[in-house]
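SEQUENCE-TO-STRUCTURE ENTRY
===========================

Backbone structure tokens: a row of integers, each naming the local backbone shape at its residue.

Task: work out the structure tokens from the sequence, keeping to the layout shown below.
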Amino acid sequence: MFQTAIFDQETVMQAVNNVNWLQPTWDLFIILFFVVASLIYGISLGRDRIIVILVSIYMSLAIVNQIPFLSDFNAGISVNDTFALRVSVFLGIFILLFFFLSHSALMKAFGHNGNQGKLWQVMIFSFLHVGLLISVTLSFFPADLANVLSPMTQGLFMSDIAQAVWVTLPVIAMAVFGAGEEK
């Protein structure tokens, strides 16, 4: 069975015991965002909108990774500005694509007129959507500054295996669960 240090019970317990609520860390914000967004945000959107968001995330990631001026522009700015620029461009493209795709035939192709879907499907898509979004955003984080995050957060969202899993699982879920049933 595949086990890594990030899933070790002792490591998880140590991470939970080290939480300082008076001085929260980025890890705490990321984990809280992951949990809250997966539960509340996903239920409020419904399965069909989450599927459109997932497609928008994939398209935005492909565009941001292929924009030539971002890599050329990186040479003249600091590491923190590079991160902010890439995240800003990604979020801008993501919002535009989501707006256009949610008002296009794609929404009807992937979903059925805003169908909420079964609760368990919504929760799975929501979990995968938020995990993918966190993983993509953290992938823009400069490697030398990644030490700010705990090894557990890095392992869950930033490692090569984690990024491959977060990119692959939503596609598998869309293929397995399909677009849903007609109302």
